[in-house]
């Protein structure tokens, strides 16, 4: 759970405060749960903290699902809730929630069209796609997704039938899996070249459970899969998730949270390598807030992204910080 008092122990001045940012990955929770309460007021507390965050994209997190009715329609509650918050953000004078990515069970196959059409209607013009997590590993130390995906989800014929419906509607797919599953995403991308796939959180290089303390080995396993994905034109990458404890962010129990320089000591090489593989036009920095807020403040996180990208051209940096997100999510 994010602790703002602890995060405040490492204050940093915002660098390059005029650089325009579209944050393409954040969540909202109106009630306290595993990650704590994080509603629109909390999002604006972070996005108005000095960085020039003009727009954001909400990403599925299981918030405010309906408690009754057909199970496949229950995720609509999240879209309805976020659409209301997005409308509030339009007149707030602060960052606006410009797009919504929710959840639908693609393993419904062709029947998922009814669910997707209901999401589109509920979102009031902001619905852009769904996330259906495939992250799976038979290891009790690795967190299990709330959707509890089976092994090999992205290869199931019913799932691919549902993904084809998603593509036919011009909607995108958020892939969240672990590094040993990157080949499954590549197979999906090849099977459905018309589907826009956004790989979350650097492709999920794990740093806990059986992978704890084995960073070099994980990188050796992770890079080949990322190289394959980078060669597929319908795949984009979110460069972030670097505050997640499951990816090996080591600061949760430190006396003070990390500085941006400390974050880059741990992640700088992987961030630069990933951007170079995909190119700025298919990569976008993300906050993954408030999940990354467990170990790293919003100010520090975006300072780290600004520092690591300093040697790219102004146009490339504009693409990384806002352009790719605007293209992928059709903002």
What would you say this structure looks like, in words?
The mean pLDDT is 96. α7 packs parallel to α8. The chain contains ten helices and eight strands. The protein is of the alpha/beta class and 331 residues long. Strands 1-2-3-4-5-6-7-8 form an eight-stranded parallel sheet. The chain has one domain: TIM Barrel (Alpha-Beta Barrel). The two termini are 31 Å apart.
End-to-end distance: 31 Å
Task: Give the overall pLDDT as a whole number.
Answer: 96
Find the CATH superfamily: Metal-dependent hydrolases
Q: What is the radius of gyration computed over CA atoms, rounded to a whole number of angstroms?
A: 18 Å
Q: Which fold does the CATH topology refer to?
A: TIM Barrel
Q: In total, how many domains does the architecture comprise?
A: 1
Classify the helix fraction into a percent range: 25-40%
CATH C-level:
Alpha Beta
Question: Would you identify the CATH architecture?
Answer: Alpha-Beta Barrel
Would you count the extended β strands for me?
8
Which descriptor suits the 3D outline?
Answer: globular
| Alpha-beta content class | alpha/beta
> Strand count, sense and closure of the main sheet?
8 strands, parallel
Order of helices and strands: HEHEHEHEHEHEHEHEHH
Give the percentage of residues in beta strands. Answer: 5-15%
> Poorly predicted ranges (pLDDT <50, ≥5 residues)?
none
Biggest sheet strand line-up: 1-2-3-4-5-6-7-8
How many separate helices?
Answer: 10
Which features does this protein show?
single chain; 331 residues; alpha/beta; TIM Barrel; eight-stranded parallel β-sheet; 10 helices; globular
């Amino acid at each position: 759970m994010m602790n703002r008092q602890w995060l405040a122990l490492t204050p940093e001045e915002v660098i390059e405060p005029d650089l325009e940012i579209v944050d393409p990955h954040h969540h909202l929770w109106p009630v306290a749960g595993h990650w704590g309460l994080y509603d629109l007021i909390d999002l604006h507390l972070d996005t108005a903290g000095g960085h020039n965050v003009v727009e954001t994209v909400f990403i599925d997190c299981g918030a405010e699902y309906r408690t009754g009715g057909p199970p496949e329609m229950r995720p609509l509650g999240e879209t309805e809730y976020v659409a209301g918050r997005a409308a509030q953000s339009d007149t707030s004078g602060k960052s606006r929630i410009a797009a919504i990515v929710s959840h639908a069970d693609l393993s419904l196959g062709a029947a998922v069209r009814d669910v997707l059409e209901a999401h589109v209607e509920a979102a009031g013009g902001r619905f852009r796609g769904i996330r259906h997590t495939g992250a799976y590993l038979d290891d009790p130390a690795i967190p299990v997704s709330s959707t509890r995906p089976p092994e090999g989800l992205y290869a199931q014929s019913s799932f691919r039938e549902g993904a084809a419906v998603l593509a036919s509607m011009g909607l995108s797919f958020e892939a969240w899996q672990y590094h040993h599953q990157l080949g499954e995403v590549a197979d999906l991308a090849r099977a459905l070249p018309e589907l826009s796939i956004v790989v979350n959180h650097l492709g999920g290089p794990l740093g806990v459970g059986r992978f704890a303390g084995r960073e070099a080995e994980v990188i050796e396993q992770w890079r080949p899969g990322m190289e394959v994905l980078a060669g597929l034109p319908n795949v984009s990458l979110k460069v972030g998730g670097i505050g997640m404890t499951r990816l090996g962010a080591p600061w949760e129990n430190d006396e003070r949270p990390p500085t941006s320089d400390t974050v880059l000591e741990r992640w700088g090489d992987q961030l630069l390598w990933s951007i170079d593989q995909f190119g700025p036009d298919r990569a976008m920095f993300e906050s993954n807030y408030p999940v990354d807020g467990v170990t790293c403040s919003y100010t520090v996180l975006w300072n780290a992204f600004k520092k690591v990208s300093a040697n790219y051209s102004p146009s490339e940096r504009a693409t990384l910080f806002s352009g790719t997100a605007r293209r992928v999510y059709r903002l």
